[in-house]
Design brief:
By secondary structure, the chain is mainly α. The chain contains 14 helices and no strands.
Length: 387
């Protein structure tokens, strides 16, 4: 009994390590740019197109990192790459405060994107493998809750530093330091012997098929659809004198919505099916994205943050589940392909928003375009459900 009790604690520790890793590399490493961006725009006089390009560089790195992380023959072991990704994410996050050069920002965000992809894919593989062997797959929701937890912690950190008069440079330094502390905890919680050689089950047939291609397109549209609001919601709030009072909390609201989202949408998928759950979540998110640009409407922007946070991590998890189900051959191949399309959509979104903003000094056109993309994504996956 004592052994079993110790084993149970170790499994929970692995899931907790996954939560901390995603909080660091995703919630902070990828998304802390959103609450810091308004301060950078104000201090450095960045244009919306420049801000969009910097964001897109991170997603380009994520796309290439996802493809690299999916290579079966990656040398050195997954745990080593996972830890290295966490370290590089922390270093590039802190380094963002050391320069005011746009080319340097682009390079650092690109490297950080590669690092976050390694953490997500290889870290999730290690965590899920260990949970599956222990028959504790339900703890995967704890792992994915890390994204929302990281968003909340980083939003509170940035708001607190701003309240005490610290500028965007200190905000980046502090975020990087927090990520380094998270790295130390993850190294302690994930021992070297965590990585095991689990058998790989393969289905006969080719990795590509019509249904998988449709889902890849839908997942890319989802990436485009959520990322515009996820990148610029704090900027939208700061630009409005009527909304500026809620700027310190708006990104916190997104994070709080994200924490339970995987559990919520998994619960819905068990009742209506994973395809319908994905489609419904995309439609809910489309509403949130569309109402984010209602003029000077505080309840609408708060509801937008709730709907965005309450869907985007859940949709991400559902989409990966569908990819694994649709893959013929290696599920890992299907997951890598949809992740690449997802990253492509994310890469296009901020740049598109930055340039279309100039047509009316508003995020109306990019946000409504994003909402439309989410509706199309919902329709495509609903078509897969009907078939």
């Amino acid at each position: 009994m004592k052994y079993k009790h110790s084993e149970s604690h170790q499994i929970v520790g692995i899931a907790l390590a996954g939560l901390i890793a995603l909080a660091s590399a995703m919630g902070i490493g990828r998304f802390v740019y959103t609450p810091i961006l308004p301060f950078m725009v104000e201090s450095l006089q960045l244009s919306k197109s420049q801000a969009g390009i910097i964001a897109s560089a991170n997603f380009l790195g994520y796309m290439l990192g996802a493809l690299a992380a999916a290579i079966p023959s990656l040398p050195g072991g997954r745990r080593n790459w996972f830890i290295a990704g966490l370290a590089m994410s922390a270093v590039t996050t802190a380094a963002m405060g050391a320069s005011g050069s746009i080319p340097v920002f682009i390079t650092q965000r690109f490297i950080g994107g590669v690092a976050s992809a390694f953490v997500l894919i290889l870290g999730s593989a290690l965590v899920f493998e260990k949970l599956a062997l222990a028959h504790r797959t339900g703890l995967s929701a704890l792992h994915f809750a890390g994204v929302g937890c990281g968003i909340v912690v980083s939003a509170v950190l940035v708001s607190a530093l701003a309240a005490y008069g610290y500028d965007w440079r200190v905000q980046w330094y502090a975020s990087g330091l927090l990520s380094l502390l998270a790295l130390a905890v993850v190294i302690w919680l994930v021992p070297v012997e965590t990585e095991v050689a689990a058998p790989v089950m393969r289905k006969p047939g080719s990795g590509f098929n019509h249904r998988l291609i449709v889902h890849m397109i839908a997942y890319g549209l989802f990436g485009f659809g959520y990322i515009i609001t996820a990148t610029f919601i704090s900027t939208i709030v700061r630009a409005s004198p009527e909304l500026s009072g809620i700027e310190p909390i708006i990104w916190v609201v997104v994070g709080l919505g994200a924490i339970p989202s995987v559990s919520l949408w998994n619960w819905i998928s068990r009742r209506v099916g994973i395809y319908w759950s994905f489609s419904l979540a995309c439609l809910v998110e489309a509403i949130g994205v569309a109402i984010s640009v209602l003029p000077d409407n505080e309840p609408a922007i708060i509801l937008s943050a709730v709907l965005l946070g309450g869907t985007f991590v859940g949709i991400t998890a559902l989409g990966l589940g569908i990819a694994g189900e649709l893959s013929r051959g290696s599920p890992r191949q299907g997951i890598a392909l949809v992740t690449a399309f997802f990253a492509l959509g994310q890469m296009i979104g901020p740049t598109f928003a930055g340039y279309t903003y100039t047509f009316g000094d508003s995020f109306l056109v990019p946000s409504l375009s994003a909402a439309f993309a989410l509706v199309i994504a919902a329709s495509l996956v609903a078509g897969l459900a009907r078939k």
